[in-house]
Amino acid sequence: MPRHTAIPMTDHQISPQRHANMAAIHGKDTKPEKMVRSYLWSHGFRYRLNDPRLPGKPDVVLRKYHTCVFVNGCFWHGHEGCRFYRVPKTNTPFWEEKVRRNKERDLKVRHQLTALGWNCIVVWECELKPKVRERTLESLAFTLNSIFLQEQRVKKPYSIQDDQPLMAAEE
Ligand SMILES: [Zn+2]
């Protein structure tokens, strides 16, 4: 009888290994958008997802920063000069047309958002590959903070101008 326990034990030894493999596979499957979201959240950025009130239902909407973040797949959104954007050898015109239309729509959405006073940031899937991920996410956070500071700076002169007539009236 004790001999038999050796079998389940072996199983147990395999199990954590298998577990690790599954975790690794799962990690690989993690959607780029989720990476961006969890990074932003853990660094104190608060956002809304796929806000349907905005053109193009942006992936991540940071109201405080007046910024929409799009996490784009390199193939579907036709990332120029990217090695992950390769048009399939078969049905080439079909794919090219599909990607061309996606790009056209992306551009239109960006113009609409800009016209509404939103900043748009595109994070490409290839920029989230393990080797470059950290740098990409850090620079995203840096850009958001810069946008925030810039907007604060832009607002200040206006509020001073608004206050001036009141102060003059008090004199
Ligand atoms: Zn790319």
Concise synopsis of the structure shown:
With 171 residues, this protein is α+β, with helices and mostly antiparallel strands. The chain has four helices and four strands, in the order ααβββαβα.
Could you characterize the architecture of this molecule?
- The protein has 171 residues and is α+β, with helices and mostly antiparallel strands.
- The chain has one domain (28-163): Endonuclease, Chain A (3-Layer(aba) Sandwich).
- Helix content is 61%, strand content 10%.
- Strands 1-2-3-4 form a four-stranded mixed β-sheet, with helices on both faces.
- It starts with a helix and ends with a helix.
- Residues 4-14, 21-29 and 159-171 have low confidence and may be disordered.
- It binds zinc ion.
- Zinc ion is lined by residues 74, 79, 82, 84, 124-126.
Layout of helices and strands, plus pairs?
Blueprint: H1 2-29, H2 32-42, E1 48-49, E2 60-62, E3 67-72, H3 92-115, E4 119-124, H4 130-170
Parallel strand pairs: 3-4
Antiparallel strand pairs: 1-2, 2-3
